[in-house]
Design a protein that fits this description.
The complex is a heterodimer. Chain A is mainly α. Helices cover 76% and strands 1% of the residues of chain A. Chain B has a six-stranded mixed sheet, sandwiched between helices. In chain B, strands 2-1-4-5 form a four-stranded antiparallel sheet, covered by helices on one side. Classes of the chains: A mainly alpha, B alpha/beta.
């Protein structure tokens, strides 16, 4: 009998567990539903603000926009040229558009695996960049000269980004290789340079190059502020990218180098054809990440007095009639940054999938 | 044995890893066309010895002459010597980002300055010879271990070397793939290639080797014909090793 008594409490427990599970299920369903409806509600509010109640007419001003109750895209309609082109002369805006298109096409082309040899990429960027520069600066082929301090908006952002990556990438490779040499004083001093740059905030480096450097260098060596800023960005990019590449090189099995050595290949050939291509493949996610970060960080040039995309956006609403519409301007700029950065990271994901297929 | 026209002539070779004495006064001469099998327990220095021949490891005492050239750390000379000394590794070490054909033409084009079409013709000829001509456009990761090792042999041969070094070429293979690699090595030997081969494949040694060298603890313990080596080893360490290897 006592045994029976002991086993009795078990019977109701089963039922209790079952009911507890039902309650848990119910709770999680309710919670999910609540969260989902909240999300939908927020999404709808945004949609309503951005599209349904939005005002897009170029004649609309604050009064009309407030009456509409939604976004006031009129500010973009009226001021988009300032956002995209900054202080670039109005009648020459087509040049800025053409220049931007060239850079975008160059970037897209360099994403095509078939062009991934040092020569092809080199030629592509040389052509793309020269085209961009001639269009933007002019002074050649009957194009009027437009000095760098007048550049602005999206084209300035793209210029700073692509120029600093273009200089920074080869520099990163050189730094990575120097840090890995067997000569201790070279590798130690390269390591010191890399670690110093990495331990400084980008802002301070920008300031040093834009503001402090002119006091320290003889006049003839100072050059345009824009190029000093680009050098600063390139150094900063290179210091981080060098470590990414070095990490990639360390991931290449030692046997790869030995096999190449055993066939009599020189250091230069082993690096260029065997080790670096593999290092780039393994470090691709980190490299793409570094590109996205570099793109975002171009917006810091505003502190040394350049009108990049973000700064031109600031200028776009800083007039008496548009001060109220800053949210719209920032949303617009955010969308532009998003398109570029999201595109880059999607491309990175595509590359990873592509390389996951078989090759090793 | 140490005639001046030896393909490889090693005398009083010493090598240290820190305080560890990896090679102790090793003397070895390999005549042109000779096939030498080096065996011995792990850690005996056989891989170190073969890797000193093309300077993947640097020795710190003694001399090495390969095809008449004295070898040291001077890179110009060593790269010239390496062109004539092919090496096959335990882990194949094919370049994973290139197709098999690209693997085979890379060094001939860069180092020997052969034109692409000539390099491809030579490479295809060797790939056919190791029976993987139909795999030429695949990547190494798509091949089996045995196929990869044969591709690695073809890659080495594409440089048209005069000496081939094999560093445990079958140790990383699944058992059923060992023989296809050994067959290729046997036919290479039959063509008169000078071969130095670190291996535990005693059947291969008996069939192909002119000489078997037994190493233990950094020293050459025994050096003789396969018959004398297998049938009546002079040293007790050799006898012990053989009894362990041949047990299975």
């Amino acid at each position: 009998m006592s045994e029976l008594n002991l086993s009795l409490p078990l019977a109701p427990t089963v039922a209790r567990v079952a009911s507890r599970r039902v309650i848990k299920r119910l709770l999680s369903v309710l919670l999910s539903a609540a969260c989902l409806s909240m999300l939908i509600w927020v999404a709808w509010l945004c949609f309503e603000w951005a599209f349904v109640n939005a005002t897009v007419s170029s004649d609309a001003r604050q009064a009309e926009c407030v009456a509409g109750g939604g976004a006031c895209w009129s500010v973009i309609v009226n001021r988009w040229r300032l956002i995209f082109f900054g202080l670039y002369p109005f009648e020459e805006h087509w040049r800025s558009v053409a220049a931007c298109s060239i850079i975008v096409v160059t970037v897209i082309l360099s994403c095509v695996p078939a062009l991934w040899t040092a020569t092809r990429l080199g030629i592509l960027w040389l052509v793309g960049f020269t085209g961009f520069y001639i269009l933007m600066r002019g002074g050649l082929f009957g194009l009027s000269l437009i000095r760098e301090e007048q550049w602005g908006g999206l084209s300035l952002t793209l210029f700073i980004f692509s120029a600093s990556v273009l200089i920074g990438m080869p520099l990163a490779i050189v730094l990575a290789l120097l840090r890995d040499t067997k000569l201790p004083w070279i590798s130690k001093s390269t390591g010191l340079i890399i670690d110093t740059i990495r331990s400084l905030p980008l802002l301070s480096i920008l300031f040093a190059f834009a503001v402090v450097l002119p006091f320290m260098l003889p006049d003839m060596m100072v050059g345009e502020k824009l190029y000093r800023v680009i050098v600063a960005y390139a150094l900063y990019f290179a210091a981080y990218q060098a470590e990414i590449i070095r990490g990639g090189l360390q991931g290449v099995p030692k046997g790869q180098d030995e096999a190449a050595k055993a066939m009599g290949m020189s250091y230069r050939h082993r690096m260029a054809y065997v080790l670096l291509p593999q290092a780039f493949r393994t470090s691709l996610p980190a490299t793409i990440n570094q590109f996205v970060v570099a793109f975002m960080e171009t917006s810091l040039v505003v502190v040394v007095g350049f009108f990049d995309l973000l700064a031109s956006g600031n200028a776009a609403y800083r007039t008496a009639e548009w001060t109220f519409a800053f949210v719209e301007v920032y949303a617009f700029i955010a969308a532009i940054y998003f398109i570029f950065s999201f595109g880059l990271s999607q491309y990175g994901a595509y590359l990873e999938r592509r390389m996951g297929l078989g090759k090793r | 044995m140490s005639s001046p026209d030896s393909a490889i002539l090693i005398s009083a070779l010493n090598k240290h890893y820190g305080t560890y004495h990896a090679l102790i006064n090793v003397d070895l001469a390999v005549a042109h066309g000779q096939k030498v099998v080096i065996c011995g327990p792990s850690g005996s220095g056989k891989s170190t010895l073969i890797r000193c021949i093309n300077q993947l490891e640097q020795h710190d005492g003694g001399t090495i002459r390969v095809l008449g050239t004295a070898i040291d750390a001077d890179t110009d000379d060593i790269n010239r010597v390496r062109q004539d000394v092919g090496m096959v590794f335990q882990h194949f070490n094919l370049f994973p980002h290139m197709t098999i054909l690209e693997n085979c033409i890379l060094a001939p084009m860069l180092v020997r300055k052969v034109s692409r079409s000539d390099a491809e013709a030579t490479a295809m000829q060797y790939l056919e010879k190791v029976h993987i001509g139909d795999q030429a456009s695949k990547y190494p990761g798509q091949l089996s271990g045995g196929q990869q090792q044969r591709a690695a042999i073809a890659r080495s041969l594409s440089m048209q070397p005069r000496i081939m070094l094999f560093d445990e070429p079958t140790s990383a293979l699944d058992p059923e793939m060992v023989s296809e690699v050994l067959e290729v090595m046997v036919s290479l030997a039959a063509e008169g290639m000078t071969m130095v081969c670190v291996t535990h494949e005693m059947g291969f040694a008996r069939r192909v080797a002119d000489r078997v060298v037994f190493m233990d603890r950094g020293e050459i313990v025994e050096d003789g014909s396969p018959e004398s080596f297998f049938d009546n080893p002079r040293n007790e360490r050799t006898a012990k090793f053989l009894s362990q290897v041949l047990k299975h």
